[in-house]
Design goal:
The chain is an alpha+beta fold. The protein contains 3 helices and 5 strands; from the N terminus they run ααβββββα. The protein has a single domain, classed as Irregular (HU Protein, Chain A), CATH 4.10.520.10.
Amino acid sequence: MTKADLVEKVTALGDLTRRDGEVIVETIFNSVIGALQSGDKIEIRGFGSFRIRQRNPRIGRNPKTGARVEVPAKKVPYFKPSKELRDLVNPGEAGTKA
């Protein structure tokens, strides 16, 4: 699903114009991005949570030349799905332990 598909779904749910759907989707995305940039955690019950994880610096390799490359520390967004979402995606595995 693309962003345009999501806008279409939102627009179809109510008596909204395409522009209204775009504003709603953009507002949600910008809110999530803004919260992550400020270091906040976003939790959407029944869907999952977004947060920032810190990656430590490491030594990598250039796949073309094999040369060692310093990879600096960085922050990366991380999504953890809720149990409800995992159960909906894997209906046959609900309630089973590995």
